[in-house]
Amino acid sequence: MHRRFADRADAGRALAEQLKHYAQRGDVIVLGLPRGGVPVAYEVAQALGAPLDVLVVRKLGVPWQCELAMGAIASGDALYVDEELMREADVSKPEFERVLAGEKAQLARREALFRDPQRAQIDVAGRIAIIVDDGLATGASMKAAARALRARTPAPAKIVAALPVAPRDAEARIGSDVDEVVCVAAPEMFFSVSQFYADFSETTDDDVRAILARASPASGPAARG
């Protein structure tokens, strides 16, 4: 089994090594998926000398097993639904709509929380957008995030999914939505992202806000108000 990362910062530094060909380029931006992906993304952005922003994503959990993703939503009304899983789990349309409404409210809340007036959204037009999470399980969140970026006008020139750990079939799961998948470890025995971290304690909203405050502000030609 691949060694466990000490924590998300350690994972971010390991991931940055795999992305060093993108270092010190003016056309690269790093987007962390809140909440757990943000501390990983911070280390990547610092190592690459790239601006950091967040791309808010909310998993749509099966009502009676919320950790099992039947889809995800992201900023900009992007939606991914795993129709096959919904059929297997026997989730009805009203049940799905209730989960969707609740997660849309949470997404709006987090957008307001993380996107304060002093922090403009980074413009992705024509740039290389590196989407970072702390790991990949179903791929739902990453697919929704990538679709959100594709839907922007103008869209990024390239979308890279960057992950410390993911299942062996990660590229098959998300490859149709991104241009490149970069992963530190893709172990054969994969049960959960947390098994590859010594410290996988929860990242809070306050943690995300503090990390964004430490990061270089989005300014100049990379930002838009």
TrEMBL record:
Record InterPro entries: PRTase-like, PRTase_dom
Molecular functions (GO terms): glycosyltransferase activity
Domain named Phosphoribosyltransferase: residues: 9-200
Entry keyword set: Glycosyltransferase, Transferase
Domain of life: Bacteria
Protein name per the record: Phosphoribosyltransferase
Organism from which the protein derives: Paraburkholderia bengalensis
Record flagged with keyword Transferase: yes
One Pfam entry name: Pribosyltran
